């Protein structure tokens, strides 16, 4: 009997403990044990911040910008993932986190990128920087140019590794912006999701890599991020997580220990997913009906959206609808991808929040003289 009473009491207390958490999620006050913290949506809307623009060392979170500039070089065609990169003596001599590159040995750029993402390899950072820009110093100039392009408010780089430098600094909000740009590159996630992997050197020697971002294994939805630690910067972490259509970014700068930085980011993620959501109102490439074609070999052309219309906001508070502006007909010829109309995401007051083009899903050739003649004969 006592066991039954004890079970009922324990179960009741469990329910009581859960009810306030669910009902009062909006009223949770975040208090991150770190010098700086920020929580933001994928597109940069700040949901929480704590001293987020103070200039501080950020240790290896610097590598977020190193990776971003590397992907920019790949996108521009200056370098390619399958490039062979020769590690200089300078690169191989880097201290701190490393994969112990052999001086004068040749490595694939893609493998070096993975080592930077997974285990924060300083030697790989310098090798990549020298391959892209000729020297680390020239590459760092690109990093600072990129910071200006992104409108970062409190960031300056002196190296590409995050090793201590007197005039190198950033802030939580700037790191969040950098990470939001980095995750636009799909290749990044092929590296960021690696938990453990061997880095194989040309000689056959193997260096084991373990991801420094423990949340990719222990937090549901976390699929990317970058840790950092130096005595000056203390423990830092920038990470991103996605559940359903909702992605958020959280940054901690200057936590007292590693466990605290992971807890701080986890707490911010929990708050975000409890209170906010992204809703996709119109997905990319979704079919939006057909439009009549005047003078075409086909009478209609199907149209689709060439972008996504989505909104981010507090749960239960978003009130949007799609308004499509589509003509009754278009004149042939029509080429696949031609802009036919526009779809707008509008708020309850009719104001346009976002818009995407509606384009032709296929081509429709114009009728020729013989097509018209054949039509007359057939109908006659």
Strand order of the largest sheet: 14-16-17-12-11-15
CATH class of the largest domain equals Alpha Beta
Number of helices: 11
Mean pLDDT: 90
The major β-sheet equals:
6 strands, mixed
Which outline best applies? globular
Order of helices and strands: HEEHEHEHHHHHEEHEEEHEEEEEEEEH
Distance between the termini: 94 Å
Helix amount = 25-40%
What value does the Rg take, in angstroms?
27 Å
Please count the beta strands (DSSP E, at least 2 residues each).
17
CATH fold group of the largest domain? Beta-lactamase
CATH architecture of the largest domain: 3-Layer(aba) Sandwich
Q: Provide the low-confidence segments as ranges.
A: 1-27
Would you tell me the structural class of the helices and strands?
alpha+beta
What is the H level of CATH, i.e. the homologous superfamily of the largest domain?
DD-peptidase/beta-lactamase superfamily
Strand share of the residues? 25-35%
- Domain tally: 2
3D structure, described in words:
The chain is an alpha+beta fold and 380 residues long. The protein folds into two domains: 28-276, Beta-lactamase (3-Layer(aba) Sandwich), CATH 3.40.710.10; 283-370, Sandwich (Peptidoglycan synthesis regulatory factor (PBP3), Domain 2), CATH 2.60.410. It is built from eleven helices and 17 strands. It has helices spanning 2-23, 63-75, 89-92, 109-119, 122-133, 136-149, 172-182, 186-192, 215-218, 258-275, 369-379; strands at 36-41, 46-50, 84-86, 106-108, 196-200, 206-210, 222-230, 234-243, 246-255, 276-282, 287-294, 300-305, 309-314, 320-325, 329-331, 339-347, 352-360. The chain has a six-stranded mixed sheet, with no helix packed on it. The chain has a five-stranded antiparallel sheet with strand order 2-1-9-8-7, with helices on both faces. Mean pLDDT is 90; it is low at 1-27.
């Amino acid at each position: 009997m006592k066991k039954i009473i004890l079970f009922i009491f324990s179960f009741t207390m469990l329910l009581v403990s859960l009810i306030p958490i669910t009902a009062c999620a909006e009223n949770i006050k975040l208090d991150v044990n770190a010098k700086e913290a920020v929580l933001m949506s994928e597109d940069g809307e700040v949901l929480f911040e704590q001293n987020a623009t103070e200039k501080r060392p950020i240790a290896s979170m610097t590598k977020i910008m190193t990776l971003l500039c590397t992907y920019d070089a790949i996108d521009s065609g200056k370098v390619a993932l399958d490039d062979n990169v020769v590690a200089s003596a300078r690169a191989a001599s880097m201290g701190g986190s490393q994969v112990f590159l052999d001086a004068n040995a040749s490595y694939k750029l893609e493998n070096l990128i993975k080592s930077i993402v997974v285990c924060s390899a300083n030697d790989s950072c310098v090798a990549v920087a020298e391959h892209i820009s000729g020297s680390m110093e020239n590459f760092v100039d690109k990093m600072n140019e990129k910071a200006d392009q992104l409108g970062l408010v409190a960031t300056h780089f002196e190296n590409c590794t995050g090793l201590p430098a007197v005039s190198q600094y950033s802030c939580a909000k700037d790191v969040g912006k950098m990470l939001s740009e980095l995750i636009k590159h799909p290749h990044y996630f092929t590296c960021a999701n690696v938990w453990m992997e061997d880095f194989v050197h040309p000689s056959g020697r193997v260096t084991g890599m373990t991801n420094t971002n423990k949340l990719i294994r222990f937090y549901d939805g976390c699929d990317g991020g970058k840790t950092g630690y130096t005595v000056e910067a203390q423990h830092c972490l920038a990470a991103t997580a996605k559940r359903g259509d909702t992605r958020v970014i959280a940054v901690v700068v200057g936590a007292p220990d590693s466990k605290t930085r992971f807890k701080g980011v986890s707490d911010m993620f929990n708050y975000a997913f409890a209170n906010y959501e992204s809703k996709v109102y119109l997905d990319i490439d979704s079919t939006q009906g057909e439009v009549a074609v005047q003078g075409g070999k086909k009478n209609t052309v199907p149209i689709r959206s060439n972008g996504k219309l989505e909104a981010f906001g507090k749960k239960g508070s978003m009130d949007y609808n799609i308004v499509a502006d589509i003509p009754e007909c278009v004149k042939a010829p029509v080429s696949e991808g031609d802009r036919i109309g526009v779809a707008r995401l509008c708020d309850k007051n009719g104001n346009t929040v976002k818009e995407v083009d509606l384009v032709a899903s296929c081509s429709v050739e114009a009728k020729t003289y013989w097509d018209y003649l054949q039509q007359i004969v057939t109908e006659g």
